[in-house]
Amino acid sequence: MTTATDQMNSALQVIFSFFLGLMVVALVGVGTNTFLPSPAEEYDRQIQELYHQIDSYHVKTSSDAELTPAEQAEYQAIQDEILELSQASDLATRDWARTSSIVLVIFATLVMSISLIRAEQLRVLSNGLLLGGIFTMVYGAGWAVFSGSSPIRLAVITFALIMTIGLGYLKFVRGRRKSEYEAATQHAAEQPATALQAAMPQPTPQQAVSLAHQAVVGEASPASEEELLKRIEAIEERLDAAANAFGSKLRGS
Predict the structure, then answer these.
(1) Of 138, 155, 188, which residue sits at a domain end?
(2) Which residue has the higher pLDDT, 239 or 160?
(3) Could you give the number of structural domains in the chain?
């Protein structure tokens, strides 16, 4: 019967696993951006400086003053440079997004692989790491989609799909089969002892007291000895029958 405490513990475990997954994807994302910063920031800084230069020409034209041919040439050169920097920023950002997606997918695969270690003993941590790996995989696949049309993008998404299916199989399908096999093996190992206990006749309390008294006194009548021999033979026959039955069951399985 499930109590309120068990339900509360289950809810807290789910919340903790989800929070752990968010922390994992945050750590991987921040770490990737720290060691692999976006090149767009440097291009944006240069473009902003050029826009400041263009503002001076706009101020002059707003006062009904015409630009000299030299100033017009400089103005056009600044605009051309801004266009070139924008195009270069787009190309660099796409390359950076493609590289970042590869790094994120690799880290996601690593985290999901770690979640398979001692998954049964550390179920909450394993689920949290698995969620973190899934979130990171989605994050990396998103950067791959926005990295432009490239065969590398298709390769990254395909690799992410294969790793997700493979690790999901190891986590849910193979792990369940392993647990079922271990349970069946343990049950089969316990059956011989159960069969032997069932095969052995249990003496009544009066017979147990009589046998104990005879063992202490050291005296036993011929009838008791004959009865004891018969019981030993009966026990041997039952043990042989149990062993044969268990052996045939193992061969049939």
Answers:
(1) 188
(2) 160
(3) 2
Mean pLDDT of the chain: 77
Domain boundary among 138, 166, 188: 188
DSSP character string of the chain: ---HHHHHHHHHHHHHHHHHHHHHHHHHHHHHHHHS--THHHHHHHHHHHHHHHHHHHHHHHTTPPPPHHHHHHHHHHHHHHHHHHHHHHHHHHHHHHHHHHHHHHHHHHHHHHTTTTTTTTHHHHHHHHHHHHHHHHHHHHHHHTT-S-HHHHHHHHHHHHHHHHHHIIIIIIHHHHHHHHHHHHHHHHHHHHHHHHHSPPPPHHHHHHHHHHHHHT---HHHHHHHHHHHHHHHHHHHHHHHHHHHHHHH-
Of all residues in the chain, the percent with pLDDT exceeding 90 is 18
Answer yes or no: do 246 and 209 share one domain.
yes
- Helix 123-145 vs helix 69-114: crossing angle, to nearest 10: 150
pLDDT at 198 over 60: no
Long-range contacts of 85-94 (CB under 8 A, 24+ apart): 85/43, 85/46, 85/47, 85/50, 86/43, 86/47, 88/43, 89/39, 89/40, 89/43, 89/44, 89/47, 92/39, 92/40, 92/43, 93/38, 93/39, 93/40, 94/147, 94/148
Confidence of residue 205 (pLDDT cuts 50, 70, 90): low
Which residues form the domain of 107?
A: 4-188
Q: Which residue type does 134 have?
A: I
